[in-house]
Amino acid sequence: MRKVLPLALTGLFALSACQFAGHDDRAEEAGRLNTMAALPLHAYLPDPASDDAKAITRAQWILGKQCMVRLGFTGFAVFDTTSVESTYPVRQGTFTSRDLPGDDSPYGVVDPDLASGHGYHDRTPDGSGRPQEWPADQYAALTGSFESGDSHVAHGHPIPEGGCLGQAARRLYGPPPRATKVNGVKLTGYYSLAMELWYASHKEASKDPAWKKADRAWADCMKKRGFHYSDPDKASLDSDWFGHEKPSGKERKTAAADARCKLDTGYVPAVHTLEAHSQKTAIGRNKEKLDAMRAADERAVRNARTVIGDAS
C-alpha cells in the first residue's frame, strides 16, 4: 500500500486501518466473552445438545413411557422414544411462540450489524429443545403440573410427584435437591444450585462500583445517540419490544446503538471480569456441593445408558 499511495494519504489510510483493526479486536473480544461458556459456573451446567444430555432425556422418556402405561394410558405402549431426545412437554393449547425479545447471551447484543437486523429478537435455536404438546390429562400425568380442576389421579392410579417424567428423573439422579427460589422463580431441578449461584453472583457483581461505572459509560454513549436508558437491561427489556414477534424499526435502531456503545466503551470485558471473579468465589465457597452435583450427573448418565440398553 505504501508503494502505490501518495505519502500524504499513506498515513491517513494506516491510521484508519489501525482504527478498524482495533474495533474488530473489541468486537471479537466482546463476542468471545459474551457467552455462557465464558463464565466459570458454566462448567457445572449440562450441554443440552450433548450426547450425555440426550441420553438422559431419552432414558427419562423411556421410564416415563412405562409409567404412563402403568397409569392406564395404553396408547403409550407404542410411543416412539427415539424421537423425543430433544423435546419437552407443553400443555395442549397453551404453547406460545419463543420468538420474544431476548437472547441466550449474558450481556445482550454486541454485534451492531446483527442488532440492526434483528433488534433484541436474537434467540438462536440450537435444536436442544422443542416443545411437544400433550392433552391436559396426559400432560398432568407426565409432569405432575396441575391446573384448577385437574385430577391428581389417572384411570384410578395416583399420579406420582412430578409426574411420570419427574419419577423417571429421580430414578436416574436419585433424590432431588431442595427447592430454591431464583428471582422469585421456584427451581426444583438437579442443577438448581448452579443456577442459584449464577444469579447470586451476577447480583453481587452488578453492585460493584466498577460495574456501575461501566453502566454509566454505556448510558452516556447511548444518550449521545438519542437513547435514554440507565443500563443495557433497561434497553433490552423495554416494554415497547414485547407483544409482537418481529422487531420494529425503533427496536432495531436502539439495539444497534446498544451494541455499538458496548463496543465503544469496552462494556463486556469490564463486567465480565467482575462476574467471572464473583462466580469463582461462589464456586470456592460451594465446591463440595457442586462436585456432588457433578457426580450425580455422571451417575445419571451411566444409569441412562443402562436404561437405554435394557430397552433396546
What portion of the residues fall into strands of 2 or more residues? 5-15%
The ordered H/E elements are HHEHEHEEHEEHHHHHH
| Largest sheet: number of strands, sense, barrel closure | 2 strands, parallel
| Strand runs, count | 6
User: Which structural class best describes the helix and strand composition?
Assistant: mainly alpha
Question: Mean pLDDT, nearest integer?
Answer: 87
Please describe what this structure looks like.
The protein has 312 residues and is mainly alpha-helical. The chain contains eleven helices and six strands. Strands 1-2 form a two-stranded parallel ribbon. Helix 3 (112-118) links the parallel strand 1 and strand 2 (130-134). Helix 2 (51-70) crosses helix 5 and helix 6 (192-205) crosses helix 10. The protein starts with 6 loop residues before the first helix and ends with a helix. Residues 1-22 have low confidence and may be disordered.
